[in-house]
Amino acid sequence: MNKEIVIKIEGLKKKYHLGTINGGTLTADLQSWWAKVRGKEDPNTKITHYQLEEDNKHKEFYALNGIDLEINKGEAVGIIGSNGAGKSTLLKILSRVTAPTEGSIKIKGKVSSMLEVGTGFQGELTGRENIFLNGAILGMTKKEVEEKIENIIDFSECREFIDTPVKRYSSGMYVKLAFAVAAFLDSDILVMDEVLAVGDIKFQKKCLSKMGDVSTTEGRTILYVSHNMSTIQRLCTRCVVLDKGRIIFDGNVEEAIRIYLNSQTEAKTIINLNNALRYPNNFLDVKMLELRMLDRKDISVGINENVVFELTYQINKDIGTLAMKMIFRYIDGTLAGLALGRGIEGGKRNEIKKIKFTFSPKSLAPGEYEFRIVLMELGEGGAEKAQDALMFFGRIVIIQKEGDILNLNWNHNSFGNIYLGEVDVLNLGGERND
User: Fold this and answer.
1) What are 23's strand-pairing partners?
2) Are 352 and 314 in contact (CB under 8 A)?
3) Residues 137-196 pLDDT 10s
């Protein structure tokens, strides 16, 4: 049986002229012009991490650079990649928010999209009026929208405010109503960009369940961008990895996640932490400089082996005793566990110190993990004050050797990420029952 292609993209490119006006939409052009008149930074140059130095202000930048992609009816396709990889730009082009520079796109069916919070809503209109407006954009009659509006309002959990102008909605209310509109109105293709980044856990679960129904039961197509790998894994049947405007992988979800996460962390036994990504609001009276895995050629560790690390840190302000958290997650983004270290020596300003600590991975199931470190100052009563909190930056591979875990081929989806060890068995004998 031939699959029905509903999106076909060939040679797609999107070029931006950094430092010049022409954002691809009238709104972006006006924003850029007004910023220039006031001598302010152009907000539309913030689309990537590309730095606008004096010598490249008028250079061209390709947010997408040669995308070829076919998507079949009923597929749930995840799109992942680093910030600036081109994910949102691709969805904006598919949603006709901005135009491509080169290439062709063929779409079969009606597209409903949820991009930035509030996209597609008119602030002066009420929630109810915006539902009818979005239905009209999709070509639905008033009667057709009326048949679905109660389901939309109930799902959105915004009934109390449905006749209030949406400009007074919180970001969470915007997301709830926007998702309900996109999910329940008659579209063939659902385009979602970080749809679950705002909102409570209960509503996020409800959204995931509804998107699963949209794809499997209703046969609609989903394109879903997220940095949450667990939702990508749960929802999608296929995954595309973007890097610097190009597709570097298209296929199995697990493999796509592995490739993406590998690009975010370092497979090294010596890691320079001086410029590592850090969480905001660190005090940085102490700063980690380098982490080494001692006496190892690679990051592979047997499940029954110990790993010795050496951490170098700099004292920026006189400080007392410190403690450390080492947080692990599996390559699909699922948190796996926490290791603690206490009694780390503080010191005087401008001192550079080192510690060695040993980690035993025997509680982690075989597989590939990322880790991050938080260095804390301990106050009275055990209160923690985060001095330096790194984002996930390192990797470690826990391997089985002959005889480990009864030679069991570990399946993380079935068994989880934690190995709880063996239970003690006492044979009590038996009786014949002839």
Assistant:
1) none
2) yes
3) 888 889 999 999 999 999 989 999 999 998 898 878 888 888 888 888 888 998 988 766
Neighbours of 110 (CB within 10 A): 15
DSSP state for residue 331 in the 8-state scheme: T
User: Could you tell me the two tokens for 221?
Assistant: 């197509």
Average pLDDT over residues 60-84: 91
End-of-domain residue from the set 263, 292, 312: 263
CATH number at residue 164: 3.40.50.300
Alpha carbon distance 349, 363 (integer Å)? 38
Between 379 and 78, the more confident residue is 78
- Model pLDDT, residue 112: 84
**What's the one-letter identity of residue 153?**
I
Task: Please state, in angstroms and rounded to a whole number, the distance separating the CA atoms of residues 205 and 220.
Answer: 19
Please, which residues bridge with residue 248 across strands?
none
| Kind and range of the H or E run holding 315 | strand 307-315
Q: Are residues 181 and 298 in the same domain?
A: no
Residue 60: C-alpha distances to residues 50, 85, 152 (Å): 11, 16, 43
Tell which wins on pLDDT, 260 or 358. Answer: 358
122, with CB counted inside 10 A (0-12, 13-18, 19+), is middle
Can you give the residue range of the structural domain that contains 190? 73-263
Structural domains counted in the chain: 2
- Per-residue pLDDT, 44: 61
